[in-house]
Amino acid sequence: MRRDMYDYIRDGAEIYRQSFATIRAEADLSGFSEDEARVVVRVIHACGMVDIARDVVFTPGFYQAAREALLDGRPILCDSQMVAHGITRSRLPAENEVVCTLDAPDIVERARAIGNTRSAAALDLWVDWLDGAVVAIGNAPTALFRLLELIDEGAPCPAAIIGMPVGFVGAAESKELLLAHGRIPSVVVRGRKGGSAMAVAAVNAIASEVE
């Protein structure tokens, strides 16, 4: 009896269907390929802002590189536990390993040793997984800066980078640096906006072509 007190949609699949239909009706997706648009739709769904589409930038070949890496069973490296836990395992095409090293036992000492944040220090533990991986950064700008430093220092290159850190210090700058870096196919949300939910949405969109 109580279940019928309020009139709202209770069917999860129908909520998704209506949400994505609304996004596609309201957002300007004209500048994206079909595959890219599917990623943008998921990112919009994660944040509720259709106008964020104008801040999403793909570098050439991003979607194909990320998709092929996942199909090939490459790991997904995450800068935060929120990103790692948000990835829908059932959408992953090859039971891909999801890695987040932020809670490694010695991470505080590592951060102190390099004079950087815990998020940045955690990336120093990624070297064994980096080659051909998909990187998803949705929290810390220092993680994205550190990733580019490691690559410049000769670390293996990931297949693709989702660069969507959020915040008021370094977020916009780190993403512009990633775009200017130009060595690895990437997608960013320009400016201060970003966050774990957006990075997760991008991974989930690439992992399965089912919207």
List the helices and strands and how they pair.
Layout: H1 12-26, H2 34-47, E1 56-58, H3 62-71, E2 76-78, H4 81-86, E3 98-99, H5 107-114, H6 118-123, H7 127-130, E4 134-137, H8 141-152, E5 160-163, H9 171-181, E6 186-189, H10 196-207
Parallel strand pairs: 2-3, 2-4, 4-5, 5-6
Antiparallel strand pairs: 1-6
Give a brief description.
The protein has 211 residues and is α/β, with parallel strands linked by helices. Helix content is 46%, strand content 9%.
Written description of the protein model:
The chain has helices at residues 12-26, 34-47, 62-71, 81-86, 107-114, 118-123, 127-130, 141-152, 171-181, 196-207, and strands spanning 56-58, 76-78, 98-99, 134-137, 160-163, 186-189. The chain is of the alpha/beta class. It has a six-stranded mixed beta sheet, sandwiched between helices. Helix 1 (12-26) packs across helix 2 (34-47) and helix 2 (34-47) runs antiparallel to helix 10. The model has no long low-confidence stretch (mean pLDDT 96).
What are the key terms here?
211 residues, alpha/beta, 9% strand
**Strand segment tally:** 6
- Average pLDDT reading: 96
In angstroms, what separates the terminal alpha carbons? 34 Å
Estimated structural class: alpha/beta
Question: Which spans have pLDDT < 50 for at least 5 consecutive residues?
Answer: none
Can you list the strand order of the major beta sheet? 1-6-5-4-2-3
How much strand content do the residues show? 5-15%
